[in-house]
Amino acid sequence: MLRVPSSIQPHQFQSLTIQRPDPVGGNESRSDGSEMTFVAYRSDVYPERNEIFFEEHAVVVVLEGEKKFSSPTQELHVRKGDILFFQRGCYSMNESIDVNYRSLVFFVNERLLKEFVSQHITLFQRTPAVRRGGGLAQTGVELLPEAAILSFASSGTSVPGTFTNFIQSLLPYFGSHTPYLNELLRLKFQELLLHLFELDTTGQLRIILWHLYQGQKTDLDYLMSTYLLKPLSMAELARISGRSLSAFKRDFEEHFHTSPGHWIRRKRLEHAHFLLRNTDKNVSEVSMEIGYESVSHFIKAYKLQYGFTPKRAFTVCVGRDFNGLSNTVPEQTLEGAGEAD
């Protein structure tokens, strides 16, 4: 999986950085001294489909060419002029449809988002309700949109060409050495979000930002059903959920009555058991699909849970004999298998 952090390597992108907000003391106008990428110009072409993980929320602006992106519930074909807002998480990105694909990728730090909301609080007092699951969100308790990727067209502004002009005004800063670059880019960040608000005719982006501002957390059932088979660390799952690692583990155990590592391992092995019994995928393919990098570790964990090797389970699928093998073992024997809790 390709991980796209908020600090990226110069050889991968041409990028502009700003100082990271200070997480201490709640003073978001200060910096902790480190830098994060604000915007990156992407000009290379991926050779094949990639799984990507955004550790920050991101905005992708397509400058040239075409590409396909997908989330667990969406398939999007984007072209020049399209704008995508990605909530942090995992996505699939197909190879560029043509070799001319170019984009700008903005990394949207959560503290800067909260600062933006606090400075423009009146914009959120007229947020329209968003439909979800066929019904209107309850008044005052608007639900997050189901779409993990929001899509906008840059032509949707009330004054034609304003978003294009914004992008053009940003490009000269690549390679600039002005001592005021950090302050200018923080203003550009505000300008980017205001342009997106104008394009956000359904109010979905406003609702996402309001949830972030209020510190509301991602539903754990939804999170785990979406990311169960993704090769994410516990810290990355916690980040996607909007929790610290300790809060994620605490909330998880309260909700599922077991540790995250134990639950994930058991559910992945249950999925592996289903695949081995009902598809023609071999042991190595199943191991990779459920997130095990080592086939030997997968075999050991599987045998601890089911009492026999995955190869024996696979023989059932292809019609060989399978005589009375036990399909369960006590759950406590799982503690030493797979990833650590």
TrEMBL record:
It comes from the Bacteria. InterPro entries: ExsA-like_N, Homeodomain-like_sf, HTH_AraC, HTH_AraC-typ_CS. Keywords: DNA-binding, Transcription, Transcription regulation. The lineage of its organism: Bacteria, Pseudomonadati, Bacteroidota, Cytophagia, Cytophagales. Residues 218-316 form the HTH araC/xylS-type domain. Pfam families: ExsA_N, HTH_18. The keyword Coiled coil does not apply. This is Helix-turn-helix transcriptional regulator.
